[in-house]
Amino acid sequence: MRTYNIHEAKTQLSKLVERAAAGEPFVIAKAGKPLVKVAAIEPADAPAPRRLGFLAGQISIPADFDEMGKDEIAEMFGVNP
Asked: Most buried residue among 28, 51, 52, 67 by CB atoms closer than 10 A?
């Protein structure tokens, strides 16, 4: 792995980034001491798409769903139905 000093890396940054992206990592050093390693980022796996309707036919909603517990809810809020 090749090492570049900061000044050299600044002047050749575009070229060095292209080389790193192509799979050739490098190190940037200051006063001969390695500071950072530059390498290409591995692409993240795309999350699996969410399936819509995966429970279709497995559950049912009662016809009076919107009215279920109506009296109890009204009583909790002090409203007379």
From this structure: 28
